[in-house]
Design brief:
By secondary structure, this protein is an alpha/beta fold. It has two domains: 5-160, no CATH class; 171-270, no CATH class. The protein contains eight helices and six strands. The chain has a six-stranded mixed sheet.
Length: 271
Amino acid sequence: MIKSSKEKTEELVRLVHTRWMCGDDYHVNNESLLAFEVYDPKGHGRIDAVVIDRYESNGYALTGLELKVSRQDLQNELLSPEKSARFFKHLDHYALVLYNLDLMKGLDIPSQWGIYYPDGKGSLRAKRRPKPLHPGKMRVKRNVDKSFAVSLMTALSRRGSATENQKMLREAYKKGYAAGIEEEKEIHQRITNRLKGRLEVIQEIEKLSGEKLYFFNDRSIKEFAAVFKAFNEGHYQKEQLLKVVEARKNQISLLEEVINNWEQTSKERKK
């Protein structure tokens, strides 16, 4: 199913949350704060997100993030660099968060900009990390413009409380957990069906031979089936067939027990 731009953007927002915060007062491991939709102090546009480093040793660095889900949106960004450049005097780093790397094929991305993209495993990966926008200048030694500080605080308060963030993460967790349960159910069902198929073969052999067989691997089943076929066709004596049966009895546990265990596990999962 093709995702809409809104759905893609929401997915990137969740990944940004995952990388830079954990839903508790906009911080992740006490290292950073995350503000979304930070507006220019003069009202000339906004930036999608700003990551605020909480450590003095890192200069309280501010990293601007722009989320891009379409090539056209990215091209517009590159054709109108002044829109993002108006934030650069307030920021230490700037990076793009792309829905996929195909969006940037053939495009010239400024070397100072970082590039992040989904790794397909629920996280963002850095294709390249952002370089300082103001090399040689320590942010900690420069005052943040009060108007931009107000924009950051407004974004933090407007985005919602910790409860809202925790709710978002809980919903994402439940969705992933439910998907994992369904996948495990499918795996259990495939295994159960395969084992039942083996049981039918063995039960047929038991019925014809009058001997109780024990569980063994696929190769052994094929070997024994070949031997039994030969017996049926008159190439083996009953005594020879029983020797094969006896040799297999001590290999592994009963197939019925294995199937019962799997079926019991499946029933418990469904509760």
